[in-house]
Amino acid sequence: MKFCHSIVGIFLLACAASGLAQPAPKEVFRDSDGNVISNDEFVDIRMANFTYPDATIINILGNGVKEFRLQKVPQEGMAAPEFSVKTIDGKIVNSADLKGKVVVLNFWFIGCPACAGQEPKLNELREKFSDRSDVVFLAMTYDPAVEVKKYLSKMRFDYLQVADADPAMRPFHFIGYPKNIVIDKEGKMIYWRGPVHAWDKFESVIRDALADWEKDRL
Q1: Domains of the chain
Q2: What is the pLDDT of residues 126-155, one digit of tens each?
């Protein structure tokens, strides 16, 4: 009997040492409003302003769940800076004319691996709204037009493209590329992210902006 107890004791010690006796606590992620979000969205929000001090609040709930509560992305809810730009095809696009449309902005540059890596997904996202005239997908880069055209002859990127765009981008006061921004039909920034992991959230922000506008006009 003592031998059996010793075997059981050794087994329990081994389990504890390997972590089997103490499973990792369940984790739940919430945005600043308390909504449960995915791990991908949690990462996107934390990296939206990666140079800011991390203000995430961590709580251990009564049931042992580890809860992460994120800070608000400060740019969301702010009016977007005004801009007037010319696409590489010669089309003038300005923020005043875009009122009444949802604008999906991307800031990028040639030679940015993270920018190039997300372009296929950005193309897919744009394709989902190809039947909507009230959504504009607009990309800006500080690279010169001749270099952008050369890049686009080899790499597909289906947004409207603006080169030499540093004067238009600078008022957004962002750090790091890529930057993905959604501006609603009233000119307010409602989505501010860097590289995107939660593509379903990105799409839902656009769809919600369209639905909210249509509902307000009924």
Answers
A1: 12-69 (no CATH), 84-216 (3.40.30.10)
A2: 999 999 999 999 999 999 999 999 999 999
Question: Nearest to residue 177, comparing CAs of 131, 133, 111?
Answer: 111
- The closest alpha carbon to 149, from 87, 83, 85, belongs to 87
What is the identity of the amino acid at 107? F
Say which residue the tokens 């962002």 belong to: 174
* Bridging pattern class, strands 66-69 and 84-86: unpaired
pLDDT, tens digit, 9 for 90 and up, residues 41-64: 999 999 999 999 988 999 999 888
Query: Which own/partner pairs from 73-79 qualify as long-range (CB within 8 Å, at least 24 positions apart)?
Result: 73/32, 73/45, 73/48, 73/49, 73/192, 74/49, 75/48, 75/49, 75/181, 75/189, 75/192, 76/189, 76/190, 76/191, 76/192, 77/188, 77/189, 77/190, 78/188, 78/189, 79/187, 79/188, 79/189
DSSP characters over the chain: -HHHHHHHHHHHHHHHHHTTTSPPPPEEEE-TTS-EE-HHHHHHHHHHTTTSPP--EEEE-TTS-EEEEPPP-TTTTSBPPP-EEE-TTS-EEETTTTTTSEEEEEE--TT-HHHHHHHHHHHHHHHHTTT-TTEEEEEE-SS-HHHHHHHHTTS---SEEE-S-HHHHGGG---SS-EEEEE-TTSBEEEEESS-S-HHHHHHHHHHHHHHHHHHT-
